[in-house]
């Protein structure tokens, strides 16, 4: 098991990383502002599952494929960029509604929100790189099972990230009612979010392998 100083340092580090804006944060804030707090939390469930999937893959050593097979990183990176472009197009397409527009959630819509949150996280290769490059730095074989330490650190990162994002969702949801009173704000938001998502997609696609 990691020592208390090691675990404390890890928590501080992943807390700071969770506050850095990225695809997950943009998606969750947009959902919360334009569709309500419940939608943001449903999407966060998908994001959390994505973290868990990458954590399990890292613990089992599967994520090492991104290093052993260089094109694996590129394939996931480009797929993630294409997905962000799709979200951006849905926001600004003529006659369309923003995927972040406020509306009542049916069970199908809830499932879709969860799936989109999961996809947003899984299609971000930086999450895989985070686990692969970060966890080994805090693992000390002298402290016991490497597998156990990896699981504890991975679960800690998930708890910290989910807590930070949930707090952001709680604050963002307050603005949903204000947007509902001004129809023009929805139109402006659609174009702002479409532009932001497209910018993130271009940035992700243009980044080289590290």
Automatic annotation (TrEMBL):
Transmembrane segments: 6-29, 41-69, 75-92, 113-132, 152-179
GO cellular component terms, A-Z: plasma membrane
UniProt KW DNA-binding keyword: no
Subcellular location: Cell membrane
Keyword Acyltransferase: no
InterPro entries: LeuE-type (IPR001123)
Membrane topology reported for the UniProt record: Multi-pass membrane protein
Protein name stated in the entry: Lysine transporter LysE
Superkingdom assignment: Bacteria
Swiss-Prot/TrEMBL keywords: Cell membrane, Membrane, Transmembrane, Transmembrane helix
Taxonomic source organism: Rhizobium leguminosarum
GO molecular-function term, one example from the UniProt record: amino acid transmembrane transporter activity
